[in-house]
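Handout, section B. The chain below has 151 residues.
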Amino acid sequence: MALCAAVRELSRRDLLKEGGAGAAALALAGAWLPAAAPAAAGGLTRRRQATYRALVRALQGEPAAGLRHRDAASATREFAAWYEGQEASIRGHAEAILDQLDGLGLVGGSPRRDLASLRACGEAGGGSPSAEQATGCAVVAAARSLAGAAA
């Protein structure tokens, strides 16, 4: 998957070590993002769980993501458990990323179509993305980091 100039390709190990980098990029792009609902005191909502599951299913088609061996439902349960153990600011970042992915229409599509959507957002702008395209790049980078959270 080719990435915009603002995002370098990361291995699964990089994702685990640098998982917060995507969230930081998303926070920096926050001026262009609609505000997510405040982090819930309870667990991850069903809609966000479905979005995370769709993300994992899509990234299973991307060999560099290292998720082919993962069952999407198990990964989603592990992510939900990880999410519940995080402080509110981290949950808020995760929610913002998942909400942006939901806005891309990730839920309800085929994994192949969803991967194509992720690639299109991540490759937008051909190295000189507009502010909106840079936000899409940041969302894809942060989503890849989230997918590695329960890997």
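Note. Helices lie at 12-17, 19-28, 46-59, 72-84, 88-103, 111-123, 131-149. Compare this with the example in section A.
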